[in-house]
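Encode chain A's predicted structure.
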Amino acid sequence: MDDEAPSECIYNLLPRPQPPPRQRLNYRSKQRNIVQKDWDSKKSAHKTMGLPKVEPPCPKHHLLKHSKEQKLPERKPYKVPVEGIKSSIPSDKPLMGLRTKKNFVQANVVDVQMQVPKKPVPIIVDTRKGNKILLEPSGLLPTLLYRKDFGKIPDYLIKQSEEEKKAQEEYDAYVKERIRQGSMKMLTEEERNSVLSGLKRNWAELNHAYQSLSILIDTHSKQIHKEVLETKMKKLEQDIDMFEKHKFIYIPRN
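Encoded structure for chain A:
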């Protein structure tokens, strides 16, 4: 018996029908009909392909000559609107035979003589081929030298100087009033020099401590110590600069 032959079985005697293929489940939105209706309302059918509805030709009626040609509409009488009618021509007749004694030739000569001649635009030729450029925007003329405001103090500097002068006067008046009331006193030259030398001495000590820091700042405490020294040195530098710039320094008595 051949091994490749199908084995006989009672289940193979009658062919069994194949099961119908399962339909794949697809997502279908509930709003599909609304969206499709809205989309169709914005479309215009047969927009570039002719009329949307055309009656098909009837086979009983044969094609006649000139039946496909376009016919002009029926002619209708045209009525001119009342507002479009122009005013009638005036009936008065102009006076004839009037002549003027004006000499137009002599008048034109006088007008030409009285006209101011145009000044030629200054140009400069800077190449051997004759290329021309305008002289004024070329930068070769000292135009800034002949300005009306050349050599004068600008207005914004005058205004700034007046504001500074006014502020200084108000400050001096305030200081004098405080001195008169006895709440402020002025440092003498010795006291000012003593305070200034003390500030410089403190700055030198902080600078020595700052220069003694390690090159590698690898801990948080070292970083904080460095920032504290920098802040103190910056504050002392501002105080030293203030004492050196101002000769008269006022402090409260208390």
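Residues 155-181 form the longest helix (27 residues).
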